[in-house]
Specification:
The chain is an alpha/beta fold. It has a domain of 172 residues: Carbamate kinase, CATH 3.40.1160. Helix content is 35%, strand content 25%. It has an 8-stranded mixed sheet, sandwiched between helices. Strands 13-18-20-19 form a 4-stranded antiparallel sheet, sandwiched between helices. It has a 4-stranded antiparallel sheet with strand order 15-16-14-17, covered by helices on one side. α1 packs across α3, α7 packs antiparallel against α8 and α12 crosses α13. The two termini are 30 Å apart. The chain binds adenosine-5'-diphosphate, aspartic acid and magnesium ion. Magnesium ion binds next to loops.
């Protein structure tokens, strides 16, 4: 019999009926004789609601206290799921991240897992219990509660699958798997049978929230196949796996959009060596993540530099730079939150030329202006106006022929 790790996202446990639905599925696997470890997220939008609640108390809450607050969401769902399983006559026990022994570093709100002491989970499994683990949380060496970044329950599941040497890691969500793009934006998007770790990582970091990018990094590192599927059906979903040769035949696997970034422009930066280094060092020291960067050609003694940051870090970035205006020597910094980043991803890009040109042509035909461009080996991203974001996704999806079934199968 197998050891199965299953993760259920917030939408799958949004209300009592859905929790009972999850319990029925878990009980079915248990009845078949499998050992089941279940990771659950907070109910529905609980995490967003808790963040909003903190915002009513203060504009800059302590990150430690945010973790204390946010971790309560998952504690509610594990207890309710355990009760629902008991109702079905299925022995189950709920455990928080610290009770499981999920040890993390001390970076609150985006902690990294250092190690998992699987002893308690194994002991409960030996007693034939279903073990329900609170996703998204752990504790640091000082026993402070930490959280693993938004979407972090995916990481809890993958890391537990690794620590317990599980046979299967299943991620249950509100869609049938990974699609060629977000099916909420493009209803003709097609469910993929397989996608490589590398492509999924690029799609996730480019905004496809269906999997947390860090969880894919870990899955790829240890080669843990992940089955992403729906908690509302028994259909086969999408397998996230190691790439193989046949996957390279597809040029573009998918299109992602990120509406959660802001563009900052630093004006009249002195055009001399060391200035960009000082500017970005300052941001890095303040813990701000910079994404796409462009620097205009400086025909005079000064130039403009634009870059994107997560929307939630934009004000902090402006504050951080304004504090260094005199020492770095630029005139001003402005913020534009009306942007979206659209990206096309595919390992086939490595061996095909002209993908960027095609992408720009598709956008040009729709009259969409490109504000910034960045590329990696298997991804091309364009920053466009927020109002053009979803339209760009639909145009790229159609322009790269992603609705054709053959693309999904390989
Ligand atoms: P959960 O609550 O299960 O963690 P999320 O809301 O985090 O679920 O992720 C699922 C959502 O991700 C879907 O409802 C879908 O709208 C969105 N999504 C974005 N891009 C994709 C994609 N390429 N394939 C599937 N879903 C996607
Ligand atoms: N509840 C957390 C969040 O909303 C973790 C998760 O859902 O994976 O980000
Ligand atoms: Mg999620």
């Amino acid at each position: 019999m197998a050891l199965i790790v299953q993760k259920y996202g917030g939408s799958s446990v949004a209300d009592p009926e859905r929790i009972k639905n999850v319990a029925r599925r878990v009980a079915r696997y248990r009845k078949q004789g499998h050992s089941v470890v279940v990771v659950v997220s907070a109910l529905g939008d609980t995490t967003d609601d808790l963040i909003e609640l903190a915002g009513k108390i203060t504009d800059c809450p302590s990150k430690r206290e945010m973790d204390m607050l946010l971790s309560t969401g998952e504690q509610i769902s594990i207890a309710l799921l355990a009760m629902a399983l008991h109702e079905l006559g299925c022995d189950a026990v709920s455990l928080t991240g610290p009770q499981v022994g999920i040890l993390t570093d001390a970076s609150h709100m985006r902690a990294r897992i250092v190690e998992i002491d699987g002893r308690r989970v194994r002991e409960e499994l030996r007693r034939k219990r279903v073990v329900i683990v609170a996703g998204f949380q752990g504790m640091d060496a000082q026993r402070n509660i930490t959280t693993l970044g938004r979407g972090g329950s995916d990481l809890t599941a993958v890391a537990l699958a690794k620590a317990l040497s599980a046979d299967t890691c299943e991620i249950y969500t509100d869609v049938e798997g990974i699609y060629t793009t977000d099916p909420r934006i493009e209803p003709t998007a097609i469910k993929l049978e397989r996608i490589s770790y590398e492509e999924m990582l690029e799609m996730a970091s480019a905004g496809a929230q269906v999997m947390q990018s860090r969880s894919i990094e870990v899955a790829g590192k240890y080669d843990i196949p992940i089955h992403v599927r729906s908690s509302f059906s028994d259909n086969e979903g999408t397998w996230i796996v190691k790439e193989d040769r046949s996957m390279e035949d597809v040029l573009i696997r998918g299109v992602s959009i990120n509406k959660n970034e802001a563009k900052l422009t630093v004006r009249r930066v002195p055009n001399k060596p060391g200035v960009a280094a000082r500017l970005f060092r300052r941001l890095a020291d303040d813990g701000i993540n910079v994404d796409v960067i462009i620097q205009n050609i400086g025909r005079s003694a000064a130039t403009d530099i634009s870059f994107t940051v997560p929307a939630g870090e934009a004000d902090a970035a402006v504050r951080s730079l304004r504090g260094a205006r005199k020492s770095i020597g630029f005139t001003d910094v402005s913020k534009d939150t009306n942007i979206a980043k659209v990206s096309v991803v595919g390992i086939g890009m490595r061996s095909h030329a002209g993908v960027a040109a095609t992408m720009f042509e598709i956008l040009a035909k729709k009259g969409i202006n490109i504000e910034m461009i960045s590329t990696s080996e298997i991804k091309i991203s364009c920053v466009v106006a927020r109002a053009d974001g979803e339209r760009s996704v639909r145009a790229l999806h159609a322009g790269f022929n992603l609705t054709k079934r053959s693309h999904a199968r390989r």
